[in-house]
Amino acid sequence: MKLFIMAILICPCVVVFGQSSDNTALKNEVSSTVSHSGLVLYASLGFRQLDFQSSFHSQADNPSMAPSLGAGSYWSKNRLMIGTEFYYSDKQKETTSNKTHSHTFNSNVFFGYKVVRNNDWNVAPLIGLATLRNRLSVAGRNMMPTTAIYNQSTFGIHSALSIEKFTKKGFFMGLKLGYNIPFDKEKWVMDGPNTTTNLTDNPGGFFIQLTTGGLIKL
After folding, report:
1. 141-168 residue pLDDT tens
2. CB atoms closer than 10 angstroms to residue 8
3. CA-CA distance, 190 to 56, in Å (whole number)?
4. Cα–Cα distance between 154 and 163 in angstroms, integer?
5. Among 104, 117, 118, 138, which residue has the fewest nearby CB atoms (within 10 Å)?
């Protein structure tokens, strides 16, 4: 009888203690969640496609892929992202008689939505407006070398997929894959006489970037 009475008295205490432990664990889990809301700054290193098919010179060999270096930032609130970035690419390619040198500068403003968001990972598709600027010089390597310089500038759509891995201190490493879609195939303009040529190429193309940076909580 005494054991029965003691059981009746102890059981409610056990239930209350169990509920209190569950609530404490839940609070600890919520408090340990890393919030990725704030200002994110990052640098990027990667490659971009140079989709130049025009024959600028009968013996010139146009670069098809160029290393790129850039930086960017975005503001994040819950699942939403808004930001801007730029990157610069530089590539040379030579033959026995000519040297082709490509410079490109791209910048964009983008919006994103995190389809995956947890303590460690962010995965977000991005869409935005891009400015696409390309500069190409073709130089001869004979006794009297001559250089022709061509420029190309237009706007387009920036589309990408961003994958980021965060640490508890707010630092991250990421990967970005995308394609810049130009509004049109802009014609190349030759320096000097500022003559618009009949040569047209895709000013956009594929790109891949490794990103690293950190979160500043505001």
Report:
1. 665 567 888 899 999 999 999 999 999 8
2. 9
3. 11
4. 28
5. 118
